[in-house]
Write a structure and sequence with these properties.
four-stranded parallel sheet; 271 residues; Leucine-rich repeat, LRR (right-handed beta-alpha superhelix); 2 domains; alpha/beta
């Protein structure tokens, strides 16, 4: 290939990049003081690398485009607060997602995500994670996920689709309730929920027979439940009861059920 041919090819690519940039620029808009990239119902199976020229964007709203992957250059978008790619064909979350320390919302419902990388736990500002209707989602790094020390307020309703997950760390978040489907996580044996905003424990968690260690410490639970002291005990036994709280969980659920029955009986007696 001659130098003349190379110049022509580079000129064509430069022209194509400019055309794509001009097209993307039309998708930028300001909403509620944020710079938003909004693409809806257009075919964009992949996003061009020239998009990094708009790295100041704070929100991606890309829906029904057939997008198949989150580009690795996503890490260049350090101002990104919301990444909403729901209703596409995304199959994986790249490790580079962990570089987005300001990201508050990651919405990937109705995609084809198969794997959640452990780097997601580095998104220290994350408040909302949605992975509903990703029917192939069953793989996690080493079957454990550490999302501790973030700002999560909700867990996905279909969290039970993570069938192989055996260890889940959710300490120091802002969770106010747990989805009932958490009780359907059949492989889960370790669940750490300390320092959240939980007010109750789902009754169905009583049936989580594989769950060996669970920690509800430092949550504003509605009921004040204290475990009865043991006649013969060791320091290690008491540490286990305090730290892992499986016995506490069962007692709390029984007490909640007992009080609910009592309220129901009082209500029936006054009818």
């Amino acid at each position: 290939m001659s130098s003349c041919d190379c110049v022509i090819i580079l000129s064509v690519r430069d022209w194509e990049d400019r055309a794509v940039l001009a097209r993307l620029k039309e998708k930028l808009q300001t909403e509620d003081g944020r710079l938003v990239l909004r693409i809806e119902q257009e075919e964009w199976k992949s996003l061009p690398s020239c998009l990094v020229q708009f790295s100041q964007v704070q929100e991606w709203q890309i829906h029904r485009t057939g997008l198949q992957k989150i580009p690795h250059f996503i890490s260049s978008f350090q101002n990104l607060l919301v990444l909403d790619l729901s209703r596409n064909g995304v199959t994986e979350i790249p490790k580079q997602i962990g570089k987005l320390t300001r990201l508050k919302e990651l919405l990937l419902s109705y995609n084809r995500v198969q794997f959640v990388p452990e780097e997601l736990s580095c998104c220290e500002s994350l408040e909302r994670l949605e992975l509903a209707m990703n029917r192939d989602l069953d793989q996690l790094p080493d079957q454990w996920l550490d999302m501790g020390g973030n700002c999560l307020q909700h867990l996905p309703e279909d969290i039970h689709r993570m069938e192989k997950l055996h260890t889940l760390w959710l300490q120091r978040n802002q969770l106010e309730k747990l989805p009932d489907n958490i009780s359907r996580m059949e492989s889960l044996d370790t669940l750490v929920l300390s320092s959240n905003r939980l007010r109750d424990i789902p009754p169905l968690m009583e049936d989580m027979y594989r769950l060996r260690f669970v920690n509800f410490r430092d949550n504003p639970l509605t009921l004040d439940v204290t475990l009865p002291s043991r006649k013969s005990k060791t320091e290690d036994d008491e540490d286990d009861r305090e730290m892992f709280g499986r016995e506490f969980m069962h007692m709390y659920i029984r007490e909640a059920r007992k009080r609910a029955y009592a309220v129901l009986n009082v209500h029936c007696a006054h009818r």
